[in-house]
Amino acid sequence: MQRIRRYLKDPLWLFMLTGALIFYIDSLMQSPVHNEVAFSSKAMQRHFEQPVQLLSQHITAAEQAKMTQQYRDREILFYEALELGLHLNDPMVRKALVERMRQIMVSDISYPDEGELIDYYSSNLHRYQSDFEISFEQFHLPMTTPDVAQALSLLAQHPDLQEIDSVRRRTFNRYGLSVLRAMYDDEQLAQLQAATKGAWIALAPGENGLHLVRVLASYAPEQIPYLRIKDQVRTDVLAIREQEAIDNAMSRLRSKYHSRSDRQITAD
């Protein structure tokens, strides 16, 4: 009790106690902060139309009131998430926002007309050629095959043999290099391209197994007519224009922001 009396006589303690009491009373009298959340009437209307379209029935007044509150709660949660900065550390949200920015950047590009498409095609004929293609036959044998030389000798005597050790012969017609690269490694593909037509050979063993192949025919790349490849030409021209639009927009944005890595920030 004497210690309390001593504190009450101390001006500093009385000042601190009075200040704390004033702040406490002020916090009780303060009204809560209200942030305004704007709701889109069109978006809310679409929110109501979805169950009607899915269920083919009208919603009651009670259901509409409940859906209205659900929509408002969803919008409130969205604004609260922004205030908390959740979008800054969520990789999926960041990716979606970046993609949306790219869409905005390319929204005003012009679509090429027929003349521009023909000009681009004519200036880039090398881009619109068919693959080098190969037709061949193959036995795909297990790596445990004991005698590959014996199998090749058998095929030399019976080149049209249909089966070896229960493995059926398969025929591949006009397979392009882009597809063959997914089937064989680089060494095997080089052997296949250099193989003598009509002769059975064994490709180098690889992780994909053991292959005995016979090339039937090969086809040099051919120029694809414009009308057959027109859609791809349009896609290519648009891709170039989109990238140019993004590059121009980014050159402006780079001058607006100063980028530093976390290591630079730590060093500073």
Whole-Å distance between the termini?
54 Å
- According to DSSP, the number of beta strands is 6
- Order of strands, widest sheet: 4-1-6-5
* General form: elongated
Helix percent reads: 55-70%
The number of helices is 11
Task: Return residue spans where pLDDT drops below 50 for at least 5 consecutive residues.
Answer: none
The description of the largest β-sheet is: 4 strands, antiparallel
Gyration radius, in Å: 37 Å
The CATH architecture term of the largest domain is: Roll
Query: Which topology of the largest domain does CATH recognise?
Result: Chitinase A, domain 3
Structural class: alpha+beta
Bin the strand percentage: 5-15%
State the name of the first-level CATH class of the largest domain: Alpha Beta
Number of domains: 3
List the secondary-structure elements in sequence, H or E.
HHHHHHEHEEEHHEEHH
- Summarize model confidence as the mean pLDDT: 83
Structure description:
The protein is built from eleven helices and six strands. It is α+β, with helices and mostly antiparallel strands. It has three domains: 41-101, no CATH class; 111-128 and 228-261; 130-219, Chitinase A, domain 3. Strands 4-1-6-5 form a four-stranded antiparallel β-sheet. Strands 2-3 form a two-stranded antiparallel ribbon. The chain is elongated and about 110 Å long. The two termini are 54 Å apart.
Which features does this protein show?
3 domains, two-stranded antiparallel ribbon, 268 residues, Chitinase A, domain 3, isomerase, transmembrane, four-stranded antiparallel beta sheet, isomerase activity, alpha+beta
